[in-house]
Design goal:
This protein is mostly helical. It has one domain (2-19, 27-88). The chain is 72% helix and 0% strand. The protein contains four helices and no strands. It has helices at residues 2-18, 29-42, 50-63, 70-88. Helix 1 (2-18) packs antiparallel against helix 2 (29-42), helix 2 packs across helix 3 (50-63) and helix 3 (50-63) packs across helix 4 (70-88).
Length: 89
Amino acid sequence: MKKLLITLQTMMKSLRMMTGNSDDPRYSEEKLLLRAACFRCLTHHLEEHTRAVYEFATIWCDEHDNVGGIEQGFQDYLRSYAEKAFAKS
């Protein structure tokens, strides 16, 4: 768990360094901090749903300014993802 948090902190630091001069609002300090908060909130899902957590965090950050309701939002996302996969089969 601690190793995961250190990895996330390192990733966020690298992103800030790479996008320091970027005008893209997705890489503003606020959005990067929101993304980090998303990962902290969903850490307990990373082992089983790694890809879904990353995809959901991107979607969440595009549509929200805080992490209020993120757990329910993630559960809804997983349900929708499973329903779409089932419909394809």
